[in-house]
Amino acid sequence: MKTMRSSKTRTNVFVVCCVSFLVIYCVNQYTKIKELKRNLVKTLENDEKIEETSYFMKENMSSYEVFQSYDAEEFPTVLNGPTRIPHIIHQICHSEDIYEIFQDPISSFVENNPTWEYRFWTYESGRKFLNRHYPYLISIYDAFGGNDVRKSDLLRFAVIHHYGGLYADLDVKNWRSLDIATIKYACIVPTEPFEHSAFIYKTEFILTTAVLLCRPKHPFFKQALINLQLANKDGHPVYVTGPLYFTDIYKNYNSISEDDYGRRKLDNSSNSPYFYKGTLPEDHNDAVYVPNSQYFMGDIDVNLFDSTSPQQSFKICNEPNEFALSGKDLELTYRACHEFEKRKQLRKERKFTFTSHYWYHMWTFPEAKLFNLKRIHIKTFIPSCVLYK
């Protein structure tokens, strides 16, 4: 009798422990997913914050030029023109098992572009690809180590250079067909929102690496790859392979110097941003077209609303005189606040938007924080995806 009672007690304890573990697991899973989705939710909630920061801008900043046109316009294209950028979608993850939170944005590209080829890359398959086509980059690729995001940066430049097509981060959602974006221009590289470049980087523009479209073998991406041979394996991703590195390559490629700050573009055939982009016509086969941000990169990182540093957030738009700003920094701040005000309607309506970036910043999360997130194999929901072997 005692043995039966003892056995039953152990069973009850085991059941309680299992249930407790499942409860804790579910709570952790929910908490992590909720934290990751906060950017998407806050993007929809930012309208109130936009209104809160508007008064000072309306009264004081209208005399400062915005960075680009804020009129809603369809993306420039050529009616019945030939395709210049191949219809291939490239996405990258450290393995074929992706976090379930990315399933919706990934699926959006396939659903809106059913005739496009979808290629999925991992760090392992990417290394095989590099070893075959770009062996001079294997050394630095390996030096980055583990699941380092700098591998993803290097790999995206390589696959776009080799195959052409579109690359998008996993936290980028596609809203409509990309077909018309592949006709007029040979290479398309968006900027981050100009509020980012002004508030965070204190410069006129910063190119993004989250969305890229280009023809194969473009000399701009060749230059980006060649220079990576000298990358600092211990450096910060933003500077070594990310937006700041990419922007420097763009400036060198187009012979843009510090003296060109504030200089206007030479080609006014489209609604591209106003800054100087070099001498090549926008539709030249070797040019890099920088589109108006309403198309690919119009969404602001919500951290700019919550930043603890007022000089890197929209708090500075309310009372800029409280901060020690002068010269170029002051002008950039006023222009960015004016830009923010003028683009509110565009950002709400997304009338001609191709993609939205949710700014999850997954690469900044420690692996322990991501360990329990549910994963799903890419073939489960994109069975037609091409995996490099």
Describe how the helices and strands are arranged.
Elements: H1 2-52, H2 54-60, E1 88-93, E2 97-99, H3 103-112, E3 117-122, H4 123-133, H5 138-144, H6 149-163, E4 165-168, E5 172-174, E6 187-188, H7 194-199, E7 211-214, H8 219-227, H9 237-240, H10 243-253, H11 303-306, H12 315-318, H13 327-342, H14 344-349, E8 355-357, H15 367-370, E9 375-377, H16 378-381, E10 386-387
Parallel strand pairs: 1-3, 1-4, 3-10
Antiparallel strand pairs: 2-9, 4-7, 5-8, 6-7
Helix pairs in contact: 4-6, 6-8, 8-10
Poorly predicted regions are 13-30, 39-48
* Helical coverage, percent range: 40-55%
Q: Please name the CATH architecture.
A: Alpha-Beta Complex
| Proportion of strand residues | 5-15%
Shape, per Cα inertia axes: globular
CATH topology: Spore Coat Polysaccharide Biosynthesis Protein SpsA, Chain A
The value of Rg in angstroms is 23 Å
Overall CATH class: Alpha Beta
What number is the mean pLDDT?
Answer: 86
Classify the oligomer. Answer: single chain
| Number of helical elements | 16
End-to-end separation: 62 Å
User: In sequence order, what are the helices and strands, one letter per element?
Assistant: HHEEHEHHHEEEHEHHHHHHHEHEHE
Number of domains: 1
Topology, number of strands: 10
Largest sheet: 6 strands, mixed
Structural class: alpha/beta
Strand order of the largest sheet: 6-7-4-1-3-10
3D structure, described in words:
Helix 6 packs antiparallel against helix 8 (219-227) and helix 8 (219-227) crosses helix 10. Mean pLDDT is 86; it is low at 13-30 and 39-48. The chain has 16 helices and 10 strands. Helix content is 43%, strand content 9%. The N and C termini lie far apart (62 Å). The strands form 3 sheets. A 6-stranded mixed sheet has the order 6-7-4-1-3-10, with helices on both faces. A two-stranded antiparallel ribbon has the order 2-9. It has a two-stranded antiparallel sheet with strand order 5-8. The protein is of the alpha/beta class. It has one domain (48-387): Spore Coat Polysaccharide Biosynthesis Protein SpsA, Chain A, CATH 3.90.550. The longest helix has 51 residues, at 2-52. The protein is globular and about 60 Å long.
